[in-house]
Amino acid sequence: MISRDDERMSDMDYRLMVFTMNVIDFFFSHIEKRVARFGIQPGMTVVDYGCGPGRYTIFYSRLAGRQGKVYAVDIHEMAIDLVRRKMEQYGLDNVEPVLAKGYDSGLPDRVADLVTAIDMFFAIRDQKAFLGELKRITKPTGLLVIDDGHQTRSTTKEQIAAAGGWKIVDETKDHITCRPA
Ligand SMILES: C[S@@+](CC[C@H](N)C(=O)[O-])C[C@H]1O[C@@H](n2cnc3c(N)ncnc32)[C@H](O)[C@@H]1O
Asked: Within the chain, what is the greatest distance between any pair of CA atoms?
């Protein structure tokens, strides 16, 4: 079991990352279009795992709607603060920010219709423990959307296969979709 600080960026690195994301989003806003392909329906419970500043959380919240719920999970307190600010700014009543400890989100078992891990799996050191936690919180009928981030597709697929617990059911250039095995 890793300690909760092992994968946590320094505050300075975190600020730099958020600044870079803001610049990218200002010039090249691709997120809404991307999220439209994740299959989020009204009423779903969605977990934005490794939510960062909540760039995806906003769109998940709108698609899940008033009957739905979005858990925005991150290991860094700054992410949780930024999501809280976005909730106020955009009136995101169906979002709950969650500070994870190590690979423990503290969410209930089998809560999620959809879990996403966007631009973060490549940084995970213990993929088995991480994917185990994601499986624990996903309904047996639920799905996981995961992308490669800064690693190759073959590495991502090898890591998923080696960790076990998930079966790949769809694959596009953008992301991989898995269901609990
Ligand atoms: C590059 S950012 C991506 C943020 C967001 N998904 C996006 O694409 O805008 C990676 C995020 O994953 C978080 N993270 C890294 N390891 C984590 C873990 N074990 N549990 C939860 N969050 C984690 C980091 O704190 C950071 O906010």
From this structure: 41
Tell me the domains of the chain and their CATH numbers: 11-180 (3.40.50.150)
Query: Quick check: CB of 146 below 6 Å from ligand 1?
Result: no
The pLDDT tens digits of the residues spanning 14-60 come to 999 999 999 999 998 899 999 999 999 999 999 999 999 999 999 99
Quote the ligand 1 centre to 121 CA distance (angstroms): 8
Pocket test for ligand 1, best of 120, 130, 144 (most atoms within 8 A of CB): 120
**What is the per-residue pLDDT across 113-168, written as a single tens digit (0 to 9) for each?**
999 999 999 999 999 999 999 999 999 999 999 999 999 999 999 999 999 999 99
Q: What ranges in the chain are assigned the alpha helix state H? A: 11-27, 31-35, 57-64, 77-90, 127-137, 153-163
Residue ID of nearest Cα to ligand 1 atom 13: 50
Q: Is the CB of 69 under 6 A from ligand 1?
A: no
- Closest atom of ligand 1 relative to the 118 alpha carbon: 6
Is residue 176 within 8 A of residue 157, CB to CB? The reply is yes
* H/E segment holding residue 110: none
pTM above 0.85, yes or no: yes
